[in-house]
Amino acid sequence: MKKTAGTVFEGTLNAQGLRIGAVCARFNDFFVSKLLDGAMDAFVRHGGNADDVAVAYVPGSYEIPFAVKKMLATGKFDAVIALGVVIQGATAHAGYINSEVSKCLAQLGLETGIPVTYGMITAENLEQAIERSGTKQGNKGVDAMLAAIEMANLNKAIK
Ligand code: RBF
After folding, report:
1. pLDDT tens-place string over residues 26-68
2. Cβ of residue 59 lying under 6 Å from some atom of ligand 1
3. Which ligand 1 atom sits closest to the C-alpha of 91?
4. Which residues on neighbouring strands pair with residue 74, listed in sequence order?
5. Cys staple from 31: which of 23, 25, 119, 133, with CB 3.0 to 4.6 Å?
6. Which H helix or E strand runs over 25?
7. pTM beyond cutoff 0.90
C-alpha cells in the first residue's frame, strides 16, 4: 500500500469569515455581470457573507491587473478574483490582452502571497462566451470564486 504523506495541506471550501476582492471589466458587461452573479452565489452558498466581497470595476480586461494590484496592497482581502470576457475579433487584440493579463495576474499572486484567481473567459465568438457564463460550460465566475475560497484557506493552513 502506498504510504501517505506525513503532512497534507488542503484548503477547504468553507467561505465563512473570508474577505474577497473581485475585479470586473465593464467591457462585455453582458457576460461579466453573469460571472459576478455566479461568483457571489457560490460565495454565499459556501457560507460567506455577501458584505465581505468588495467589487472594483475597470474599463476592460487590460486594466484588471492594475486594480487587482491595488486591492492586494490594501491587505484587506484573503483572495482576489479577476472577472473579464475577451472575445476574439477581426484583429489579434484578444491574444495580446489574454496573455498579458494572465501573466500579470499570476505574477501578482506570487509577489504578494495572496491568491489571485482567474475568472477570465477567452472566447472565439459570442456563442462560446454564452456557454461559459452560465450555460452549457458552467460559469467561470463560480469556478474563480471556488478556487479563491480554496486557495485562501490553503494559504491560512500553510501559514
Ligand atoms: N476588453 C475586454 O475586456 N474584452 C474585449 O473583448 C476587448 N476587446 C477589445 C478590442 C479592441 C480592438 C480594443 C482596442 C480594446 C478591447 N478591450 C476589450 C478593451 C481593453 O481591455 C482596454 O480596456 C482598452 O484597450 C483601454 O485600455
Report:
1. 999 999 999 999 999 999 999 999 999 999 999 999 999 999 9
2. yes
3. 12
4. none
5. 133
6. strand 20-25
7. yes
